[in-house]
Prior knowledge:
Helices cover 31% and strands 13% of the residues. It is of the alpha/beta class. It has a domain at 9-18 and 40-64 and 121-267: Zn-dependent exopeptidases (Aminopeptidase, 3-Layer(aba) Sandwich), CATH 3.40.630. The strands form two sheets. A six-stranded mixed sheet has the order 2-1-3-6-4-5. It has a two-stranded antiparallel ribbon with strand order 7-8. Strand 7 and strand 8 form a beta hairpin.
Amino acid sequence: MxxxxxxxxxxxxxxxxREYPWSFVRRSVLDERRLRSSEDAFVDQLFDMAPKHGAxxxxxxxxxxxxxxxxxxxELDPALIEGLGRNAHNPRVASGLGVxxxxxxxxxxxxxxxxxxxEADSRIRDVWQPWHNAIQTLLDESHALFGEAVLIDCHxxxxxxxxxxxxxxxxxxxxxxGDRFGAAAGSQVVDRIEAAxxxxxxxxxxxAPFAGAFVTQHYGRPARSQHVVQIEIDRALYMNExxxxxNGNFQSFVGLMEAVTAEIAEIGxxxxxxxxx
Length: 277
């Protein structure tokens, strides 16, 4: 938390948690490095100067492979969890990426067997629910203080995810902003976020290949002055993806991201609330 809230902007890093319970690591058929392959490693560190600029920063502790707070709590996988019947087709659940994931990156199975429904429910109760309680509290506080709320949902993406993408200038993007094609945030908010990255020399695309998941869909209500934008950052800009460690550019990129974070915080530092769209 900042010493004083001076902006309606809230930053959240839901997939950078790296506290892997030993019981989980022991139970998995994967080693810890492979378990970490779906983690948005170090994203919390890229935005950790947000409180200095008057904005709260909410960061996960438990990893995405344990429970995914960017999924609906009812996205339960019958291929992983005992006693579930078949539900309507859900592509995320079918691919093993429900609220309790069955796989990590590249479709690697986490377990050799199934989990009980009780265990899945306990992860949702103990990790998922407190996370969303915290988000709702921070957004409510922004509304009370500023008459609006802007949630920045911070993620990273594998470099390979961008291989087939092009940019108007002929180069692949460094950043992908997701606003669910305008449904989750007003255009004036997204425009200013894009400008902040562009001024820093980064190429930006919107909604392809990532338009936003549960958090943007659930909390994005621009007509009620509540805006959510998902940010995806190319991991190759600051880390060695194979070794899951910072690369030689990490410190300079952290400095660049502080400037971007400061510019994004300015979005919510208006005397007049953002217009609803």
